[in-house]
Amino acid sequence: MCKPLVLLVAACGILSAASSLTILPGTVELNSPEGRHHLLAEAALGDQQEDWTRKVEWRSSNPKIAIVDASGEVRPTGDGEVTITASAEGRSATATVRVRNSQTPYTWNFRNDVIPVMTKVGCNQGACHGALAGKNGLKLTLRGYDPDLDYDTLTRQSVGRRIDPEEPARSLMLLKPTMMVPHGGGRRFDSKSLEYKILSGWIAEGMPRPHDDDAQVTGLEVLPAAARLVPGAEQQLVVRAKYSDGQVRDVTRWVKFSSSDEGVASVDDLGHVKMNGTGEAAITLWYSSRVLYARVTVPYANKVDAAAYEKFPRHNYIDDLVINKPSSAARIWMPPAYCPRRKRSRTFSPTNRRTSGKSSSTVC
Question: Could you tell me which of 318, 321, 364 has the C-alpha nearest to residue 341?
């Protein structure tokens, strides 16, 4: 009677031993003393994955070149190449980090550093100074689409009173979002934050204006681009921006995140995803007028024979795309009970905010 239990325990042990650990991305380049990059530790468990970033122990092979903290964030300390190792439960994985110009003075860039800060904290959003008429005398371009105009507004308008290059800490641009003086938008960051460091540093360096030859964002990358998780799982996302000068930077902190379905997955301001139910959701990422998404899924518990999908009616190319999903992911799209099309279903009526029964194409 004990044999089935022994076999089950053995099978579980084999599954655990077969699990692998990977660091994303596998290679990172830091090109300034202000460079920083988050690494993810992803464990493969059968046909699903888990985010072990906060679970693993992070180590740098040479802290004199780069250090890594408990969250997986890497920072430069000197030029050279270093190996970052993540270890947990007998598994380990490595990533290579190359550092250049770690001792070269860095000048904060208005287009690529200041504007992303103001966008993330909401200064140039439609509900604030990015509104058509601005707010309380300050009008910025919506989400920073015109850096040159925003630069002139901040540094020249109102006799330049928003900026104090002699004493950056006395600039209204810093006093208001830190609530050192009354601010209708409330506190957006504190004086010890990276946001404050960037804005105050830019002011102290003489407020260099944007130039046509500034590096431009040419594309975005998100890691992981797709994740198959279990109910209640959490997954950190890392977003990287590719620039016209060849650099790749971790911009996760400055990205605006949203979820297509909060019932399936919710996401916070730093890209931390929480799975709330079964199904699939797209996490939308917005940065510097570019949009990308990551797909996160939790399969339904019921198993469906792949042959069943061949019997589904196809009415348009959307049906083709859904039904032709890889068989490993197919059951994500099958709810516990399949209902044929053209049945009596309850549809929403926006006029009386009640439901009414009528024939329609039922979405299962």
Answer: 364
Q: Which residues share a beta bridge with 239?
A: 222
On whether the CB atoms of residues 173 and 188 are closer than 8 A, the answer is no
Token pair of 256 as six digits: 């605006």
pLDDT in tens, 100-159: 999 999 999 999 999 999 999 999 998 899 998 888 889 999 999 999 999 999 998 877
Cα three-residue angle 68-17-74, rounded to 5 degrees: 10
* 163 and 134 within one domain: yes
How is 174-216 classified by DSSP, letter by letter? HHTTTTSS--TT-----TTSHHHHHHHHHHHTT-PPP-TTS--
Looking at the fold, whether 96 and 22 belong to one and the same domain comes out as yes
Average of pLDDT values for 203-225? 96
The two tokens of residue 257 are 């995140």
Q: Are residues 187 and 149 in the same domain?
A: yes
C-alpha closest to that of 222 among 273, 173, 147: 273
* Cα 257 from Cα 6, distance rounded (Å): 46
What is the C-alpha separation between 267 and 227, in angstroms, rounded? 14
Alpha carbon distance 88, 106 (integer Å): 36
CA-based torsion, 43, 44, 45, 50: positive or negative: positive
Torsional class of 24: left (φ above 0), alpha (ψ -120 to 50), beta (otherwise): beta
Residue 277's domain spans which residues? 216-304
- 187 and 121 in a common domain: yes
Phi, psi of 11 (to 5 degrees): -60, -40
In total, the chain counts a number of residues equal to: 364
Dihedral of CA atoms 351, 354, 360, 362 in degrees, nearest 10, equals: 130
Collapsing DSSP to helix, strand or coil, 142 comes out as helix
Neighbours of 154 (CB within 10 A): 23
Question: Measured between alpha carbons, how far is 335 from 351 in angstroms, rounded to an integer?
Answer: 29
CB 116 within 8 A of CB 287: yes
Closest listed residue to residue 129, CA positions, set 121, 141, 117, 120:
141
pLDDT digits (tens, 9 = 90+) for 86-103: 999 999 999 999 999 999
pLDDT at 179 over 90: yes
